[in-house]
Every structure is written in C-alpha cells, then in structure tokens.
Amino acid sequence: MVCEPTTRMFNDPFFLRFISGAETYLAGRGVPLPLLSAASPVFASTEKHLLGGGSDGVLLVSVHGPHPLALTLAGTRLPIRAAGRPVEGVHMPFVDVDNRGGARAAVELLLKTRKKIALIAGPSDLPAARDRLTGYLDALAEAGRPPLVAAGDFTPRGGKNAMRLLLDQAPNLDAVFAASDPMAIGAMMALRQAGRRIPGDVAIIGFDDVTAAAFTDPPLTTVRQPVERLGALAAELLFEQVVSGGRPAEDQILDTELVIRSST
After folding, report:
1. Tell me: the pLDDT tens digits for 7-37?
2. Dist. CA 62–CA 142, nearest whole Å
3. Which end of the chain has less Cβ packing within 10 Å, N or C?
4. What is the distance between the alpha carbons of residues 80 and 70, in angstroms, rounded to a whole number?
C-alpha cells in the first residue's frame, strides 16, 4: 500500500523501483502483489479491503506523518512491514536505508572544497526527509558552519523553486545538497537559468541514484540507496512472517553509497 496519490506514485522512480524489487521476490514464490493506494480519493475502499481480510499482509510505503490507516493497521493483528522508519508514536516493523549517514557523507564531501552549503529538504512529515536533514545539520555543526535550508517536495519543480529561493537568500552559496535526485535535477535547471556553472560556481549532490542521475549535464553526484533490494527485503520479511505466523523479524537498515560524478 502506497500512501501517495497515484500521479506521484507513477512519476517518482523510487516507488517503481521499490515495487519492482518486492514484486520480483514474491513472484518467485508464486505470490502476486496487488498495488493499493491510501490517498484520499480511495482511502475508504482501501481501508475496507484491508480490514475486511482482503490481504494476508501489507507493505506500507511512504507513510507521511501519523497516517490514519497506518495507525489503524498498527493496532490490528494483520502482518505489516513499513518501507521507511515510521513516525514517532507509530509502532510497526520496518526496513529503511541509512538516510542520516548518507546525507552526512554527501555534506562531508562538499565541506572539503566548499564554504556555503545549502540543503533542499524533503517533506517535513516524512521520516526519511527528516533523517536527511539531520545528517546535513550534523555535518555542518561539526564543521562549525551555519545551515541554509529551503523546503522541497521530492519533485523537480520543488527543487527548482527551492533553488531559486536559495539563490535569492544567499547569492554567494557554492554548494547544494538536494535530498532527492528529482529535486537535484530541478535545482540544476534553476542554476543554469541563473547563469551559474556546475560545479564551477555551485557543486550539487542528490540522493537516490535514479537512472537519470548519470545522464544529467554534468552527471550528478548522488547518494545511492539500494531501492530494489529494499523492496525485496521488505517483501521477504513480511512473507516469512505471514507464512510462519510468528512475530515480525527485527528492523533492518541498509547502507547507502556515495557515487561521485562530475557535479562536484
């Protein structure tokens, strides 16, 4: 179950890659993967399906804040596994990547050669985005540098708008860490339109390592998260819980990898 509108779900590479990983694992065991949305237009029907016994287990993806259906499911006996750390107050087993460590590694790379490093952050109600913000703040605090943050929404348009705002606020900035590759791609467009050279004037790093990251101009340095593996792991842990009827396995966090290209 994806807690996003279908338009977002099919336009963001993360969801397609995660679903592919989960589906591939389950297909090898003869289990189909129905795709449900918990967005507002279909919320009631999805809730009725799940609470009425329509599924043996649920993978929860992209839970923003204390999502009402996530809260409801957490209080049932239905096996569930969240992709991404749940918000505080929502207790359920999860798999995730090291968002905080990945963000910190990105900023530490920028700190080697840059002075004023900005962040284009993700949605504040999404734990992954908050963890990436924390990693950015950790690295800057240790280096004694002040933060410079603009809000984004994990979309290219959001990244472009945030980059324009940052350039207005701090024309002398010389580096940007965007908390997703789509936002980094939008930020690169805004930088080019403002006459800034990448990386000569402004270095930029994204987060995800989507396919397009290797084909931007210049190719984008980014934090790679193993999304297909994350999907497969989430499906595996949920499947094993459903089959065994036992307690869920422990939470698991996968490492990220800094992929250095020509934007830094």
Report:
1. 777 778 888 899 999 999 999 999 988 887 7
2. 30
3. C
4. 9
Neighbours of 75 (CB within 10 A): 10
User: In this structure, how many other beta carbons lie within 10 angstroms of the beta carbon of residue 107?
Assistant: 26
Q: Which two tokens stand for residue 73?
A: 């499911």
* Listed residue (164, 89, 177) closest to 132, CA to CA: 177
Each residue's pLDDT tens digit, 75-129: 778 888 988 888 777 788 999 999 999 999 999 999 999 999 999 999 998 899 9
Size (the chain), residues: 264
Reading across the β-sheet that carries 80-83, which strands appear in turn? Answer: 58-61, 80-83, 94-97, 252-254
Q: What is the pTM of this model?
A: 0.91
Angle formed by the axes of helices 181-193 and 156-169, nearest 10°: 50
* Integer Cα distance of 7 and 5 in angstroms: 5
Outline where DSSP puts E strands in 55-127.
58-61, 80-83, 94-97, 117-121
Contact (Cβ atoms closer than 8 angstroms) between residue 87 and residue 62: no
In the chain, what are the helix, strand and coil shares in percent, each to the nearest 5?
Answer: 45, 15, 40
Distance CA 138, CA 119 (A): 12
Q: Whole-angstrom Cα distance, residue 41 to residue 227?
A: 27
Q: From CA 120, how far away is CA 207, in angstroms rounded? A: 11
